[in-house]
């Protein structure tokens, strides 16, 4: 049985390399490629692949948002997230929204191939950071606390990025992680919970 795969990554060289590598594997077939999250969700609806491999960081829609759209289209969609790093917030968001595995781009090809077969068989591959995120849902990291304090001061993501010498994307990831851990929808809600928990002081 051939496993049909959709790959979404905005780095064309990496994407071409993945397609070439997976095409050499028996029982694997890449049926669609996308260079942003929005296109990935469109191609998913068109092709209905068995497995989606989504880069976490993509333009237009990032991988997490694409994952959410795909799971709306097909709630049991099997998705593997791909990233250059293992940030706890990104891993936690992937788990929360239904990803079955999280693989770094630095991993040997056999790791991704193994993940594809295991996820296709219905397995959800536990990741140490995923387990940590679940166990510490309401506990903010020191960096998240710094970000929360600046959010409480009314700073924009851009200003927080400047203050902490981070990229705007990284700041957005921290903010998303805080909202997820506090189970709130917006920054005001996060600040409110921060005061309730004593993380923020009046």
How many independent structural domains?
A: 2
Apparent shape: elongated
Q: For the largest beta sheet, what order do the strands appear in spatially?
A: 2-1-3-4-5
Q: Per DSSP, what share of the residues sits in E-state strands of 2 or more residues?
A: 5-15%
Helix content: 40-55%
Structural class: alpha/beta
Number of helices: 10
| CATH level 1 name of the largest domain | Alpha Beta
Q: Provide the CATH architecture of the largest domain.
A: 3-Layer(aba) Sandwich
Count of distinct strands: 5
CATH fourth-tier homologous superfamily of the largest domain: Response regulator
Distance between the termini: 61 Å
Largest sheet: 5 strands, parallel
The CATH topology of the largest domain turns out to be Rossmann fold
Radius of gyration, in Å, reads 18 Å
Any overview of this molecule?
It is a single chain. The protein is α/β, with parallel strands linked by helices and 202 residues long. The protein has two domains: 131 residues, Rossmann fold; 55 residues, Winged helix-like DNA-binding domain superfamily/Winged helix DNA-binding domain (Arc Repressor Mutant, subunit A). The protein contains ten helices and five strands. Strands 2-1-3-4-5 form a five-stranded parallel β-sheet, with helices on both faces. Helix 4 links the parallel strand 4 and strand 5. It is elongated, with a radius of gyration of 18 Å.
């Amino acid at each position: 049985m051939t496993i049909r795969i959709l790959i979404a990554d905005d780095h064309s060289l990496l994407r071409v390399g993945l397609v070439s590598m997976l095409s050499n594997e028996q029982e694997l077939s890449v049926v669609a490629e996308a260079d942003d999250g929005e296109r990935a969700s469109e191609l998913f609806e068109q092709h209905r692949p068995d497995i989606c491999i989504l880069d976490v960081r993509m333009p237009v829609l990032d991988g997490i948002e694409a994952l959410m759209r795909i799971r709306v289209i097909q709630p049991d969609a099997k998705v593997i997230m791909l990233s250059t790093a293992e940030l706890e917030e990104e891993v936690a968001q992937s788990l929360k929204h239904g990803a079955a595995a999280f693989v770094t781009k630095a991993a040997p090809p056999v790791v991704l191939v193994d993940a594809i077969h295991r996820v296709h068989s219905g397995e959800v591959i536990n990741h140490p950071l995923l387990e940590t995120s679940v166990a510490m849902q309401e506990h903010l990291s020191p960096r998240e606390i710094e970000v929360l304090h600046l959010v409480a001061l009314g700073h924009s993501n851009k200003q927080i990025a400047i203050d902490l010498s981070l990229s705007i994307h990284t700041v957005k990831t921290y903010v998303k992680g805080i909202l997820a851990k506090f189970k709130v929808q917006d920054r005001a809600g996060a600040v409110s919970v921060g005061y309730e928990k004593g993380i923020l002081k009046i």
